[in-house]
Design a protein that fits this description.
This protein is an alpha+beta fold and 404 residues long. The protein has helices at residues 2-64, 131-159, 165-191, and strands at 70-76, 78-82, 85-101, 106-111, 118-119, 124-128, 193-195, 200-202, 212-213, 218-235, 247-251, 260-271, 277-284, 296-302, 307-313, 318-320, 323-334, 340-355, 358-363, 370-374, 384-387. Strands 1, 2, 15, 16, 17, 18, 19, 20 and 21 form a nine-stranded mixed sheet that branches. It is rod-shaped and about 175 Å long.
């Protein structure tokens, strides 16, 4: 019994000692675990806090970072009266114009014209050497006179049966032959004298006295300057709008501020199968000789009564495959100084005819809308803009075409 108590006591002491050891061990283990957990919690708190702070800074930056202000030019859209017209380009041509040439070869004996002078039909211009031709002409005149005398004498003899009918017939045919040769030689002599075929203005002379000319060599250009023809081409789809007598207005860069008027006189009878255009000819009065053949011209053909359109410069339109776009300037907000903030609204429009730098707006805008005319490449819907009209695009109904 005594021994059992000792053993029991020893067992109890052993168990109690082990429990104490376990408690001490657990206490020692808990302390680092708590530190580790606390460290992990602090780490995750820092990470989440950093992300929250980061998001706050990003949001603040986004709120503070406004889009840059774009400088544009703008103008209010307004109504204009348009005269429906077709625009074409062409050149001027003289109603009568030739390069005066010689039909026969010969040596230039005398020049009777002054280059650039006005001449009338029949005025002598150049005399070629015709001495040999004149001499032959005189010989033929003498032969013809003799043949005529012989014929009349034999005719009298034939009346009294002194000569045969065959002799008289031979005399008659010989006379006719010589008369024909005489006329031919007279024409040859006349061709050695060059005369103006019509009234007009001569150009620069291409010959000199003593020069030998071959047949067809140019002497000088001769142009009738009043009136002139204006030749231009019109697409075949516009042919139904043309008619003889339609008013045309032409302009040339020689006289930028002057318009010359005329009327359509001829419409060609065939359409060019390569270009599908038809040639049209208008007659233009030129009493002051201000226009010259060969000048490049722009032609405006009036078609009907005037129409009223809202118009803009073509530079104001963004032409895209999915539609035409313009930017309208709006004043919807104010800054902290009370000044209006200008923003643009992207709008689709329907365009119509074009005239010079302008285009007609059929739908999408109303009169008075302030529309951006240049600087659209940097814009998007809602962009903030400032208007500077120091430099604006061309907005002319009839711009001047420069022939370079």
């Amino acid at each position: 019994m005594f021994k059992n108590k000792k053993i029991l006591k020893s067992s109890v002491d052993f168990v109690c000692g082990g429990y104490q050891v376990m408690r001490n061990w657990k206490a020692q283990i808990r302390k680092p675990m708590a530190i580790m957990l606390l460290g992990v919690a602090i780490l995750f708190g820092c990470i989440f806090g950093f992300q929250l702070i980061k998001r706050g800074f990003i949001r603040a930056a986004i709120r503070a970072n406004t889009a840059p202000i774009v400088t544009v030019s703008a103008m209010p859209i307004q109504y204009q009266w348009w005269q429906p017209a077709l625009l074409a380009y062409g050149s001027l041509r003289a109603v009568q114009g030739v390069n005066v040439t010689t039909e026969l070869a010969g040596l230039v004996r005398a020049i009777y014209f002054k280059p650039g002078a006005e001449v009338k039909a029949g005025d002598v211009l150049v005399q070629l050497n015709a001495d040999a031709d004149v001499a032959l002409l005189h010989a033929l005149e003498a032969q013809t006179k003799l043949a005529e005398i012989v014929y009349h004498r034999d005719a009298a003899q034939f009346a009294i049966k002194a000569v045969s009918k065959a002799t008289l017939d031979a005399d008659q045919q010989n006379l006719k032959n010589l008369q024909a040769q005489l006329a031919q030689q007279a024409a040859t002599v006349a061709k050695k004298t060059l005369v103006a075929p019509f009234t007009g203005r001569l150009g620069i002379a291409a010959i000199n006295t003593g020069q030998y000319l071959n047949a067809g060599d140019q002497v000088a250009p001769l142009e009738a300057l009043d009136p002139l023809y204006a030749d231009f081409y019109i697409p075949q789809q516009d042919l139904v709008q043309l008619k003889i007598g339609s008013l045309v207005k032409i302009k040339t860069d020689t006289y930028p501020d002057k318009t010359f008027t005329g009327a359509i006189t001829t419409i060609d009878s065939i359409v060019n199968e390569k270009t599908r255009n038809i040639k049209v000819e208008a007659t233009i009065a030129n009493p002051r000789f201000e226009l010259y053949p060969g000048m490049f011209i722009s032609v405006e053909i009036e078609l009907a009564a005037q129409k009223r359109y809202l118009t803009l410069p073509q530079t104001a339109i963004n032409f895209n495959p999915y539609g035409e776009i313009v930017y309208i300037v709006q004043k919807k907000y104010k800054n902290n100084k009370g000044k209006p903030i200008l923003r643009v609204l992207q709008t689709f429009v329907q365009t119509g005819d074009k005239r010079g730098d302008q285009v007609a707006i059929l739908e999408g805008l109303k009169e008075g809308d302030m529309v951006v005319t240049s600087g659209q490449l940097k814009l998007r819907n809602g962009s903030v803009v400032t208007i500077n009209n120091t430099v604006v695009p061309q907005n002319k109904a009839t711009p001047m075409v420069i022939d370079e």
